[in-house]
Amino acid sequence: MPGCFQEVLTDVTENVYRDCYQLSSDNFPGMECPSWCVRKFTLKGGKQHGVDVVSIDNGHMTVVVVPTRGMNIQEAHTADLRLGWNSPVKGMVHPAYVDEEARGGLGWIEGFTELMCRCGLAFHGAPGEDFVSDNTGAQTSVMLPLHGTISNTPATRVVVRVDLGPPHALSVLGEVVDSRMFGPSYRLVSTVSTVPGSAEFTVSDRMENVGGSSSELELLYHCNYGPPLLGEGSRLLAPVQFICPRDARAKQDMATWNSYGPPEPGFVEQCYFLRMHSDRQGRTVVALADPQGDCAATIRYSVNELPAFTIWRNTAAQEDGYVTGLEPATDYPNARSFERSKGRVIELPSTGAYEVSLTFGLVVGGDQVARLRGEISSLAEGKETIVSEDPDSDYCPM
Amino acid sequence: MPGCFQEVLTDVTENVYRDCYQLSSDNFPGMECPSWCVRKFTLKGGKQHGVDVVSIDNGHMTVVVVPTRGMNIQEAHTADLRLGWNSPVKGMVHPAYVDEEARGGLGWIEGFTELMCRCGLAFHGAPGEDFVSDNTGAQTSVMLPLHGTISNTPATRVVVRVDLGPPHALSVLGEVVDSRMFGPSYRLVSTVSTVPGSAEFTVSDRMENVGGSSSELELLYHCNYGPPLLGEGSRLLAPVQFICPRDARAKQDMATWNSYGPPEPGFVEQCYFLRMHSDRQGRTVVALADPQGDCAATIRYSVNELPAFTIWRNTAAQEDGYVTGLEPATDYPNARSFERSKGRVIELPSTGAYEVSLTFGLVVGGDQVARLRGEISSLAEGKETIVSEDPDSDYCPM
Amino acid sequence: MPGCFQEVLTDVTENVYRDCYQLSSDNFPGMECPSWCVRKFTLKGGKQHGVDVVSIDNGHMTVVVVPTRGMNIQEAHTADLRLGWNSPVKGMVHPAYVDEEARGGLGWIEGFTELMCRCGLAFHGAPGEDFVSDNTGAQTSVMLPLHGTISNTPATRVVVRVDLGPPHALSVLGEVVDSRMFGPSYRLVSTVSTVPGSAEFTVSDRMENVGGSSSELELLYHCNYGPPLLGEGSRLLAPVQFICPRDARAKQDMATWNSYGPPEPGFVEQCYFLRMHSDRQGRTVVALADPQGDCAATIRYSVNELPAFTIWRNTAAQEDGYVTGLEPATDYPNARSFERSKGRVIELPSTGAYEVSLTFGLVVGGDQVARLRGEISSLAEGKETIVSEDPDSDYCPM
Q: Is the ipTM of this complex over 0.90?
């Protein structure tokens, strides 16, 4: 000992499925850490009917994991603050209600509500034509819809795990198999873990090519923040190595790419494509600081794993989802054919795996935010920052 | 007091969901009215698996409300007669089985079984190309499928209500949120109510634009009748101000537009576009009288709220759905681009609402039918009726 | 007496639905036959959530029937051997996750996992354009997706039946209604039955046109075998009257059409189109013998009912579904317009029915396999076998 304690909540091969479940520090008398509680429940009614949810309350922060939606993270909150946003879509949407190819390939947005949703794994980004091998081996034109299928694929196995040794990390593991005849076929094994009493959680993902041939991989973490972190005067803090606007619309506000305006009805989205500086190990951090500079949401990740970064600004009316997306990714959310032409699409061999780890945090207090600001500045210190005022043809389909 | 008694059956924000529920006059000893009973149950098996139903038996007439299908009305019946029809689709279809864009945009018909189903709210009518703003603000061509999305959107909140004062109206309230990123986003609040012992029920709808910008609204009440009200010799009674056939096919039987033939295998549908006369408040009534003139189904509504009216005749074989649709609406079931060009599409501002109320009744007995006939005649008395023998280009895409 | 015992597990018109159910020889003390057990259960978790399964363990062989997927057969197994294959898609997929029109009309493959799945009933085979009557009677171009809708239509009525007289056959009856406004509308009544202690089961299907007009019928039984029956050196045994390769790809291995190679990553499928000899009553049998010739899977059927036969070879990597499909059918899996032009599409009148019966067996032991080989040879004895080395334009779209 120590080792860990674990319980299987879902396992389709064993037909295990626990509708409701609860585990807490009360089950471990003598465990020296803040009180915590992990709960599994199933949503009922409306489009959320049948959606499985696992919430991890670590005693300070609660993280809401959605196995039915590909192990996405619906939100995280403390007693005072919430990471997430107010989508015009209410609740969490069961994949049966999402037809990805609807609306000219924009059907994905009908289920778009989360703090963090994965886009991929075979493709992500804007809908676009691509050519794939069909069952006869011929190259066939297909319309790849927005952001892929992984967010609408339910987990086939869900496990809750508690480390018996300090710091007693609490984890939810989910396996999501997104496979089919004639491929591509992937397995995502995602582990969401948090330490009791902390203000952060880590998502560790392993994407495996479970098909017999190599497959392309595109992966984007769509991390979305609304009020109270997003507001007029909120700032994006990032150790920028390169930035350009996606298009003429984004160029209009290039000068203020890292600050946010108030909700504006009819606001048309703006996207910026970036690369980040990092430390020697490739670790970096970006943050969204609230208008007062009193608190910030952080995303820590590796530029070796996720070299691309996209900012999505959608400061539309509150009713329409006043939100910004911070999107570390393997490549940019353009049509896959464009990304392939730029050499940014990963070719994953059969049985090969790609691993990514991100930590989402919440920093509270002016001193802490100042320290964070310093940390981010130091990552870029003495390094070049390239700002392209115009869309760059290496990044932007023209 | 009096006030009312109410019980929440579904509320997604509170994760309230009552699988089964029953409330009856037995719960209110001393209430002076016919015995009544409201029941909530969930259908099982086949494509109806998981469909929630609320039936209101007012002691004389039972009204079957389907929250899972956008608060549509499956049927209403008394001991002797049924309002509704026999669709080739059996039971009530869960929205997960309906892909609106399938079959060239005719997927909606896979779930078409109800006495009254709403078409809309952003568009209804025949599939057709239209141009909408995409996420980048650009105008994009989209194929709008048949009859919109509201009928395949489940209610997010369902409440049963009983008036404690006479006449002790029984109501089911449902909220249906049909919203998405980049819009359009609507909330329908529908109240279905009936008075114990009566032979009618009222549907009061409020459509709100819950998006941040103005949105187009198209709304059609697809009210469908089969046997025994529909049969060879059934008559449509209506205070017609204007009528024209939709196309050459409808023109063939223009002379007998208001009477019905027997079931005919292979019969091809006929549509007529109308406007109705009304009283000074805009209230009007249309009715379908059975072949013997012994009974009639009525729809009472306001031409101010629903200026357009379409007759759909589909007197095909019984197996194929021998049925007629009486369809009061904000506009005609043509492609939205055509309706917009005629100025008939409503522009609903953000937070704006559109309200509609219809009463569905059953009139039994030759005397009562004669009185109804007189009432309808008097609405048109001394007023002009324009009969266009040909499709009119103001109403019919040519 | 004897007669039979039966129990209704699902009936949508009565809203009968038994979530779990078990019936066994223990319920019939004194019944002289091997111990047997019929179980109904519902799968949970992942894409299989809500899928109903009925397993018939006849004491020697267990047959797994899937009412939710149109009464398909997931697999059959004895203590030693399994009939079925290892699809890259795990478990059994709920139809709510299958969008047939997705991926250019190849969406059907997202749910493809079974030993025997029906393709049809209005069309099967490769996606292709066809012209159908729309609601206005006009001929409209539609894209017919792969393999039709019947496999993704849940049964509306499921009954378990036990013959009280010897040999005490055990049956599961399922009704699957695949109907819609404007048609086509079919009812499949499928009976899966097996005798206690036997190594075979029979599927008896009745397809009815429940619409008011005649409709086209295409039906293919997609029977799929992987290891251990399929392996390097497995042989297909069949009394061939005619065979041709579907295309240049199939022609490459025309010389070895009846033997199988090892798993090959990236192997591109090969199809062969055949007709079989039969006995005077039209009964025939095909078999897949394992590499050692120690056991074989058999399919016995009537060429009067199913005149067409397709071999699908997909000896790809194990991970991608190393599998062969043996496919008796009313016609070939080409686009319906092509099959119609060759006069092979059945026109089923209103209320007309088409009946098919197939028996799936497992033969174990070198002697038994040799006897089977002899039986199949004798069916072709003294009869002509036509081998077309090239695709034949009567069978293959060029």
A: yes
